[in-house]
Design a protein that fits this description.
The chain has 302 residues and is α+β, with helices and mostly antiparallel strands. Helices cover 40% and strands 16% of the residues. It contains 8 helices and 13 strands. Strands 4, 5, 6, 9, 10 and 11 form a 6-stranded mixed sheet that branches. The termini are far apart. Bound molecules: ~{N}-oxidanylbicyclo[2.2.1]heptane-1-carboxamide, calcium ion and zinc ion. ~{N}-oxidanylbicyclo[2.2.1]heptane-1-carboxamide binds next to helix 2.
Amino acid sequence: NAASDATGSGTGVLGKKLTFNTTLNNGAYVLVDQSRGGGVETYSANNGSSLPGDLVSDADNSFTDKGQAAAVSAHYNIEKVYDYYKNNFNRNSYDNKGATLKSTVHYGNDYNNAFWNGQQMVYGDGDGRTFIPLSGSLDVTGHELTHAVTEYTAGLQYRSQPGALNESMSDVFGNFIEGNHDYLVGEDVYTPNTPGDALRSMSDPTKYGQPDNMSDYVHTGQDNGGVHTNSGIPNKAAYLTIESVGWDKAQKIYYRALTTYLSPRSQFSDARAALLQATSDLYGQGAEYNAVASAWDQVGVK
Ligand SMILES: O=C(NO)[C@]12CC[C@H](CC1)C2
Ligand SMILES: [Ca+2]
Ligand SMILES: [Zn+2]
C-alpha cells in the first residue's frame, strides 16, 4: 500500500477533533487513506442520490467546515473498522483481499438511514430530529461494513430468519468495534433531543419494540420479513453469551461462526449450532460451550 501523503485533521459529527490519513492530489488534500488495504475513500453525494459522488477534498488538509463533519467521521470511523478486522482477525477489508472501502455521505435529503449497497457504504444526514448524520456513530459504521463482511462470508440472505441473523451480526460486530459495552445501537446519532435512548438495545431488545424470545417472533411481510425486528432474538443471545464468556472469547466465537459455519439460508437454530461448533473448535465443550447453549435456550431457540 502506498503510504498516504498526509495526515489530515478535522471536526467530526459529534464535534470531536479527529486525525486521519489523506492524500495530496493535484494541489488539494482528499479523503483517501492509502495505508489500509486497497484504501479508504470518502465521498459526498452533495445531497443527491448518485453514487459515489465526489471525493471530499480540502485545500489545507484541515477539514473543519460544518459541511465536512459527516465525511470526517465516516473516514475516521472506517479506518477504525478496517483496523478492528485486521488487528483482531487478520482480515484485510470485507473481502479479505484488500477491497477499497468506499463511503458516501450527504446522501439524499434528511435521509434517516444508512446502507451497504453491495459495492459501498452510504450515509444519510438524518433530519436532525430522528438522526443526525449517521456516519457519526462508530457502531453504525461498523454495522454497515459488517454487512459487507457477511456478504463475502456467510452470505446470509436478507430476509426472514437469515436476514435477522444478518442484521444481528452487524449489530454484534458494531458493538464489538465500538467497544464501549453499551450494547446499544445508534445511540450516538439517534434523537439528539432525547439523551440516553437508542435505536436498538441488545441487552434488552424489548425496550425498543423488538422480541427477545422465539415465542415472540414477528411474522410479517414488512422489512424483508421483519429483519430489523426479529434481530432482537439473536441479539439477546449474543448479549447473554458475551456477558458469560467475556468480550474476547465471544468475538472469536462469533467471527468463526460467521466466516466458517453460517450460510445463506441459515435459520436461528443453525446459528445456535454454528456458534456451538465454533465454541467447541476454540474452547472445547466446557463452560463456554454451556454458556452458548444456555444463551440460546433463554431466547427459545434449540
Ligand atoms: O439497521 C440498520 N440498517 O440495516 C441501520 C438503520 C439505522 C442505523 C443505520 C442503518 C442502523
Ligand atoms: Ca453503541
Ligand atoms: Zn443493517
